[in-house]
Amino acid sequence: MSPRPSKFRHISKQPVIAGMKPYGFNGKKENTDPVFLNLEEFESIRLCDHLMLHQSQAAGMMGVSRPTFTRIYARARVKIAEALVTGKQLIIEGGKIYFDSSWYSCRGCGCYFNNPEPDIRPEKCPLCGSRNFNNYELLPDEIDVEKALTKATFKRDFCGKRGAGKGRGFKIR
Amino acid sequence: MKIAITSSGNTLDSKIDQRFGRCEYFVIYDTETGDVEIIPNSSGDAAEGAGPASVQLVAAHNVKKIVSGEFGIKVKSLLDSLKIQMIILKNSEKTVRDIIEMLNK
């Protein structure tokens, strides 16, 4: 039986670099293959270690379950550690991911529009032709964090009224 | 380039429909030839999946932009993958004719 195909992971922000190169290498040149970090792994590091979110919040933002997120995150740390310790080049690419297209709001006619071509910035509003528009943040981070939080509370209820400490979860008979 | 506008009636003087999946009519306007085609939305009464069905209908006409009041969550991701531009005009009293004039400017 083949396993269930994995879900697409939502990436909120594209990395600003395509990778990292080591410098001042003074060990023995052995294996210099680059380490490939998936975009989903990069995103997990960004959410957890840079934005300091909880794993359950970060999982909600990426649209995966909390255990899956932990696995992605663990993989990311192993890869980054390998690159750091053995002095390998780090390349950020690939992964089963999707982006939100960017949205803009026009001050001329009050409309909102998205940009289906992520590489080209729109020059004018597609409706009224005005150049007076700016980026419109849908605030996916805020909405999703809230969703993730409600999910987390739901999970807590599942464990009954016991706290997060000793004896949580199932009762011992 | 073809642009679809959701309309609440089958004339050019009817107002823009605030919903995409359950709008009454689609007005398809060709910016090059100036042709206007009005097609009724057959999936407007469906219990479920009106949005994706409407996307299919509109995409079959080779539309590149859609003007509407609101797009549902299923529709947004679908249109993103089809590379069709969404233009949201909220709480607007504008008629379809107004919008076509705006597009021509």
Characterization of this structure:
The complex is a heterodimer of chains A (173) and B (105). By secondary structure, chain A is α/β, with parallel strands linked by helices. Chain A folds into 2 domains: 9-23 and 33-92, no CATH class; 101-173, no CATH class. Chain A has 4 helices and 8 strands; from the N terminus they run E-E-E-H-H-H-E-E-E-E-E-H. In chain A, the strands form 3 sheets. Chain A has a 3-stranded mixed β-sheet. The two termini of chain A are 37 Å apart. Residues 139-162 and 166-173 of chain A have low confidence and may be disordered. Chain B has 105 residues and is an alpha/beta fold. Chain B has 3 helices and 5 strands, in the order E-E-E-H-E-H-E-H. Chain B has a 5-stranded mixed β-sheet with strand order 3-2-1-4-5, sandwiched between helices. In chain B, helix 1 runs parallel beside helix 2 (73-82). Strand 7 of chain A pairs antiparallel with strand 5 (85-88) of chain B, so a sheet runs across the interface.
Task: Please outline what is shown here.
The complex is a heterodimer of chains A (173) and B (105). Chain A is an alpha/beta fold and 173 residues long.
**Between the first and last Cα atoms of chain A, what is the distance in angstroms?**
37 Å
Cross-sheet strand order for the largest sheet of chain A: 2-4-3
Task: Specify which chain pair forms the largest interface.
Answer: A-B, 16 and 18 residues
Which ranges of chain A are low-confidence, i.e. pLDDT below 50, for 5 or more consecutive residues? 139-162, 166-173
The largest pleated sheet of chain B is described as:
5 strands, mixed
Mean residue pLDDT of chain B: 84
Number of helices of chain A: 4
Structural class of chain A: alpha/beta
Q: How far do the termini of chain B sit from each other? A: 15 Å
Number of β-strand runs of chain A? 8
Oligomeric state of shown chains: heterodimer
Shape of chain B: globular
The H/E string of chain B reads EEEHEHEH
Q: State the major sheet of chain A.
A: 3 strands, mixed
Strand order of the largest sheet of chain B: 3-2-1-4-5
Helix share, percent of chain A: 25-40%
How large is the count of helical segments of chain B? 3
